[in-house]
Amino acid sequence: MPRSRSAVSAFDPDLTSLPAVAHRLDFADHEAEVPMHAHRKGQLILTLHGAVTCTAGSQIWIVPPNCGVWIPGGVPHSARATENARLNYLFVEPAAASLPADCCTLWISPLIRELIDRLARERADYRPDSHAARLARVVLDELAEMPLEHFNLPVSGDPKIRAMADALTIEPSDRATLGEWAKRVAMSERSLTRLMVRETGLTFGRWRQQLHLLVALRDLAGGATVQNVAAELGYESVNAFITMFKKAVGSTPAQYFAQRKAPLKT
User: Which pTM does this prediction carry?
Assistant: First the structure.
């Protein structure tokens, strides 16, 4: 069946003032692109299967296994999901929980994951004295204790950095040097070097490696093989890609997904 509906139209979290409501979304039924939008409630995005990449707060965020991306209320955001993506959203009323004031990636315990999944089966207009209300309270209390992870790419509002991020997201195998990028965006290499560090806090090499990591996590979770991801990112060999991945996250792709009980194609 063709995917014709935008995910934004599937559920409006601001129709209720309850502290927390959950909603499951299957992207087999919706367009992969979620346009820029915002809502009063904060939003936690969890993947059950596949992967989703979010843009929010001048950052690009990936939602890897056993983590969730937290977007505070009022922050404009957009997303792109893999075709096999199934997600759980948790929408949180402002001030209902002690959650970060900025966008971030949170580690999500198996308990929280299961509780949110259970809450997603409840009506969005549950009574304040119901079992669903008690579930929501436990979820919010537990969520406030979760540690931060670092699966984001700073892109800033600068149009030149944004253009580089957009181009490399579309064609991540592009191995152009910083000098070549400087010519493309009509700057000197020295000026682009300073701009990159000032706007993102990273050197160009570290920034591109982080982008490669996000693309790799997204595509591996979406069902791509390690060999195909290595080729997509322009690595000369699978071993070179695995070395980059292990240096970035502390384990090989197979180990990373096994630790999170997520299947990985080899």
Answer: 0.75
- Asked if residue 61 lies in contact with residue 53, where contact means CB atoms within 8 angstroms, the answer is yes
- For residue 37, the domain's CATH number is 2.60.120.280
Do the domain assignments include residue 98?
yes
**Residue 62: phi, psi to the nearest 5?**
-110, 145
Q: For CA atoms 251, 66, 153, 51, give the dihedral sign.
A: positive
CATH number for the domain including 255?
1.10.10.60
Would you say 88 and 48 are in contact if contact means Cβ atoms under 8 Å apart? Answer: yes
What are the tens digits of pLDDT across the range 197-221? 999 999 999 999 999 998 888 788 7
The string of pLDDT tens digits covering residues 67-126 is: 899 999 999 999 888 778 889 999 999 989 999 999 998 888 889 999 999 999 999 999
Tell me the residue type at 194: R
Asked if residue 200 and residue 80 are part of one domain, the reply reads no
